[in-house]
Amino acid sequence: MKPRMSLLNSMPPWCGHCKELAPIWEELGEKYKDREDLIIAKMDSTANEVESVSVSGFPTLKYFLAGSERKVVDYNGKRDLELFRNL
């Protein structure tokens, strides 16, 4: 199986900024649903915790890069569909 890159949106259900991002995130997931090398994911960060990933605000967006080094990168750019589509 080919390594995958993942883009994770860590968001609690009460977060206003997360609710604004939700429809954009859903559309992004729909656009890339057939790509086997990319995962668009979201999780409720109040119910799930990943020890190796720091979350200091919401929504927290992280890239998990494909490959043997399994590098995690923070996404700090604008949060609109056009920018996400060009990742």
UniProtKB/TrEMBL annotation:
InterPro entries: Thioredoxin-like_sf, Thioredoxin_domain. GO terms for molecular function: protein disulfide isomerase activity. It catalyses: Catalyzes the rearrangement of -S-S- bonds in proteins. One of its GO terms (biological process) is response to endoplasmic reticulum stress. Pfam families: Thioredoxin. Its EC number is 5.3.4.1. Keywords: Disulfide bond, Endoplasmic reticulum, Isomerase, Redox-active center, Repeat, Signal. GO terms for cellular component: endoplasmic reticulum. It is an enzyme of class 5 (isomerase). Belongs to the protein disulfide isomerase family. This is protein disulfide-isomerase.
